[in-house]
UniProtKB/TrEMBL annotation:
The organism of origin for this protein: Propioniciclava coleopterorum
Record-level Gene Ontology MF annotations: hydrolase activity, acting on carbon-nitrogen (but not peptide) bonds
Higher taxonomy: Bacteria, Bacillati, Actinomycetota, Actinomycetes, Propionibacteriales
Location of the NodB homology domain: 85-302
Record Pfam families: Polysacc_deac_1
Protein name in the entry: Polysaccharide deacetylase family protein
Any one Gene Ontology BP term: carbohydrate metabolic process
Length: 319
């Protein structure tokens, strides 16, 4: 077997990607200096999208036969060879308490929500799914379970996508047109286009505006997401130490997008999790930013699917 380090050394002189590598081609250019001039609801320059990642109960656990405990936890402790009941209870906080606190905030402040929903998580807490339907929230498929899609074969991933969509349809009468998985594979986007039910995916972090791409000869929309204004930074690596850190980052993000040196509109994604931002202090910080954005001229709150459709109307697919 070839030594991977030697292979890497042999390619140090390349100035392009290898031909035939699986997955989408890299695009390092994007819109460049001339992004399209878009406007959102009520002529706003920045569309703010709040995304609840509802995954609790679908994460990897010994209880579900995965032989491991998921890693996103408040403290840097790992239990390797048995159930981690402490970690499981953190996730349960999200489904028992955190998600309801989020719904109450959104109701009180009158802002729309997008839910990246894992099908199994909603199956295991039907009351949450029923509330999403009742509120009319924007459901984006977060897969069947909260798993890394790159761990599965193309056929297995195709099956997982189908299982998720069938669950949403048969249990709740919902047919998402958007997709975001935990970690996409080189096959994910091709499978979504092959499936035919998806207007867009959000498995991308490389822009502040949606953009069209070509997959298997078909136009497909990408609506980027963000890991910057995202509450995973409370518990992973060097990130937010307090809700004030989140509020400051979110405010500065919005202020910059509103005055970004040109006349182009942009979008701002805020990613939150019931087990993380559902805790009182962090939800209080989110509410503080929402009030700030509501009082800021040029900003509006929209769902992700409304952003996708509005963009597609203003910037039609090339073909």
């Amino acid at each position: 077997m070839a030594d991977p380090k030697q292979v890497a050394r042999n390619h140090w002189f390349r100035n392009d990607d290898l031909p035939g590598v699986a997955g989408p081609e890299r695009d390092l250019v994007g819109y460049g200096a001339t992004p399209p001039r878009v406007r959102w609801k009520d002529g706003a320059k920045v569309a703010v999208n709040i995304v609840i990642n509802y995954e609790e109960g679908s994460e990897k656990t010994f209880a579900m036969g995965d032989g491991m405990n998921d890693g996103m936890y408040e403290l840097p402790f790992d239990v390797d060879d048995q159930r981690d009941l402490a970690k499981e209870s953190m996730y349960e906080y999200g489904s028992r308490a955190g998600i309801w606190r989020m719904f109450r905030m959104a109701d009180r402040l009158g802002v729309p929500l997008t839910v990246f929903g894992a099908a199994v998580a909603l199956e295991r807490n039907p009351a949450v799914a029923e509330r999403i339907v009742e509120r009319g929230d924007d459901l984006v498929s977060h897969g069947y379970r909260w798993i890394d899609h790159y761990e599965y074969s193309r056929e297995e991933e195709r099956e997982v996508i189908g299982l998720a969509m069938e669950s949403f349809r048969s249990n709740w009468g919902l047919e998402p047109v958007g997709w975001y998985c935990r970690e996409m594979s080189v096959n994910t986007r091709e499978l979504l286009v092959e499936d035919g039910r998806f207007l867009y995916d959000s498995d991308y972090y490389g822009d502040d505006l949606p953009f069209w791409t070509k997959v298997a000869g078909k136009d497909h929309l990408v609506v980027p997401y963000s890991l910057v204004t995202n509450d995973c930074r409370y518990i992973m690596g060097t990130g937010f130490g307090s809700p004030s850190d989140f509020v400051d980052t979110a405010k500065r993000t919005l202020d910059q997008l509103l005055d970004d040196g040109d006349d182009c509109g942009r979008m701002m994604s805020i990613g939150i999790h019931p087990r993380i931002t559902g805790n009182p202090a962090r939800l209080n910080g989110l509410a503080e930013f929402v009030r700030y954005a509501l009082d800021t001229p040029g900003a509006t709150f929209m769902t992700r699917t409304d952003i996708a459709r509005s963009f597609a109307e203003q910037v039609p697919a090339p073909s």
